[in-house]
Amino acid sequence: MKILILGNGQLGQMLGKAVIQQGHECVLYSDRLDLVMALGSQQPLSMNLAEANEWADVTTWEHEHLGEELVAKTADKFLVQPERFNRLVDRRTQKALCDELEIPTSAWKAYENVAELSAILNACDHAVVIKSAKGGYDGKGQWRWRPGDDIAAVAEDAGQRPGIVEDMIDFTDEVSVVGARSHKGEQRCFPLTLNVHTQGILSYSLAGAEHFSKELEALAKEHHKKLTNALDYVGVLAIEFFVVGEGDNQHLLVNEVAPRVHNSGHWTMSGANCDQFNLHIRAITGLPLPDLLIAPTLMVNVIGVAGIPEALWEAAAADCHWYGKEARPGRKVGHVNIMIDSFERGENLASSWAEKLQLLVG
Ligand code: ATP
Ligand code: MG
Ligand code: MG
């Protein structure tokens, strides 16, 4: 089959490799440069977007912030209905969809402008996170506010564009479920993954070490199934959750939904028989989804540093991925997967490696 991938960043590249591995062809569209490229190439192909779309049997994407114009130009080759896809792109409609499906999410209110945001904050008696409705990633486009903080300043800044005001959640952990749905409605999810963020950026993920209860795992998969079924979704979709409560009261609140492969699924490149990229390509090309076999794995993001230390390249248990991007503080430039034998070992390794692999501020 011929596959057009929208986006030419690291996720697009990793999707492209899975396309080739499975014997298909792909081209990647750089939405930043408005150019079509071959996998691994910096040189544009002679095709433009319209020709690439014509060429393709199926179009997929590395991120959901494509913009209405690009979606309109390419959606005839999407496997997900564009109206349904668009519901996930805007935090307001995404949260409303969770409410409609009774999938618990942090309490939220939408605002359109400075005046509406000021009014919400004036009436608010608890800490909140303010988020732009569209386009944010790695914690960009977010503001924290608590009673006593200045309202005018934050409203003037955040209220320039529509967004949501969300209750600040006192979570015990952040987790995600990454899973695929096929066109026949089959579902395969990787195990619940623990995600630790620093300054809004994913620092590391740990999975497969049976850290979470069976009930919590099952709940995450149930929410994933409900959401993907409701959207008649085909491909990999990730849900980020906050874990709240203790013991029998432990449950999940959706933080956000990403209709695509996800950073918290990168560990599957070393810790699963079929990684998230291959799972996605299998789903969108109509192959059956395999049962997933898992080995406990730690993924540490490489952020803002100029390279991965020699010691990691040389370590047998480490699988290093470098994205070929220029290093800037706070920018993800690679990741390292390390096989682990226990959750505790994973956490210890994570904190020691995160220090060496991550430069968040300049
Ligand atoms: P991503 O790169 O995952 O797409 P994003 O910019 O879309 O990130 P969120 O996932 O909404 O942003 O938030 C980033 C991080 O900020 C979360 O992983 C969490 O650590 C923290 N955070 C966000 N919302 C809340 C909340 N309501 N309560 C507490 N912490 C929050
Ligand atoms: Mg996000
Ligand atoms: Mg997030």
From TrEMBL:
<dbReference type="InterPro" id="IPR016185">
    <property type="entry name" value="PreATP-grasp_dom_sf"/>
</dbReference>
<feature type="binding site">
    <location>
        <begin position="166"/>
        <end position="169"/>
    </location>
    <ligand>
        <name>ATP</name>
    </ligand>
</feature>
<dbReference type="InterPro" id="IPR013815">
    <property type="entry name" value="ATP_grasp_subdomain_1"/>
</dbReference>
<keyword id="KW-0658">Purine biosynthesis</keyword>
<feature type="domain" description="ATP-grasp">
    <location>
        <begin position="95"/>
        <end position="285"/>
    </location>
</feature>
<dbReference type="GO" id="GO:0005524">
    <property type="term" value="F:ATP binding"/>
</dbReference>
<keyword id="KW-0436">Ligase</keyword>
<keyword id="KW-0067">ATP-binding</keyword>
<comment type="similarity">
    <text>Belongs to the PurK/PurT family.</text>
</comment>
<dbReference type="GO" id="GO:0005829">
    <property type="term" value="C:cytosol"/>
</dbReference>
<comment type="subunit">
    <text>Homodimer.</text>
</comment>
<comment type="function">
    <text>Catalyzes the ATP-dependent conversion of 5-aminoimidazole ribonucleotide (AIR) and HCO(3)(-) to N5-carboxyaminoimidazole ribonucleotide (N5-CAIR).</text>
</comment>
<feature type="binding site">
    <location>
        <position position="131"/>
    </location>
    <ligand>
        <name>ATP</name>
    </ligand>
</feature>
<dbReference type="InterPro" id="IPR003135">
    <property type="entry name" value="ATP-grasp_carboxylate-amine"/>
</dbReference>
<feature type="binding site">
    <location>
        <position position="197"/>
    </location>
    <ligand>
        <name>ATP</name>
    </ligand>
</feature>
<feature type="binding site">
    <location>
        <position position="174"/>
    </location>
    <ligand>
        <name>ATP</name>
    </ligand>
</feature>
<dbReference type="Pfam" id="PF17769">
    <property type="entry name" value="PurK_C"/>
</dbReference>
<dbReference type="InterPro" id="IPR011761">
    <property type="entry name" value="ATP-grasp"/>
</dbReference>
<feature type="binding site">
    <location>
        <begin position="255"/>
        <end position="256"/>
    </location>
    <ligand>
        <name>ATP</name>
    </ligand>
</feature>
<feature type="binding site">
    <location>
        <begin position="136"/>
        <end position="142"/>
    </location>
    <ligand>
        <name>ATP</name>
    </ligand>
</feature>
<dbReference type="GO" id="GO:0006189">
    <property type="term" value="P:'de novo' IMP biosynthetic process"/>
</dbReference>
<protein>
    <recommendedName>
        <fullName>N5-carboxyaminoimidazole ribonucleotide synthase</fullName>
        <ecNumber>6.3.4.18</ecNumber>
    </recommendedName>
</protein>
<dbReference type="GO" id="GO:0046872">
    <property type="term" value="F:metal ion binding"/>
</dbReference>
<dbReference type="GO" id="GO:0034028">
    <property type="term" value="F:5-(carboxyamino)imidazole ribonucleotide synthase activity"/>
</dbReference>
<dbReference type="GO" id="GO:0004638">
    <property type="term" value="F:phosphoribosylaminoimidazole carboxylase activity"/>
</dbReference>
<comment type="pathway">
    <text>Purine metabolism; IMP biosynthesis via de novo pathway; 5-amino-1-(5-phospho-D-ribosyl)imidazole-4-carboxylate from 5-amino-1-(5-phospho-D-ribosyl)imidazole (N5-CAIR route): step 1/2.</text>
</comment>
<dbReference type="InterPro" id="IPR011054">
    <property type="entry name" value="Rudment_hybrid_motif"/>
</dbReference>
<dbReference type="InterPro" id="IPR005875">
    <property type="entry name" value="PurK"/>
</dbReference>
<dbReference type="Pfam" id="PF02222">
    <property type="entry name" value="ATP-grasp"/>
</dbReference>
<feature type="binding site">
    <location>
        <position position="91"/>
    </location>
    <ligand>
        <name>ATP</name>
    </ligand>
</feature>
<keyword id="KW-0547">Nucleotide-binding</keyword>
<dbReference type="InterPro" id="IPR040686">
    <property type="entry name" value="PurK_C"/>
</dbReference>
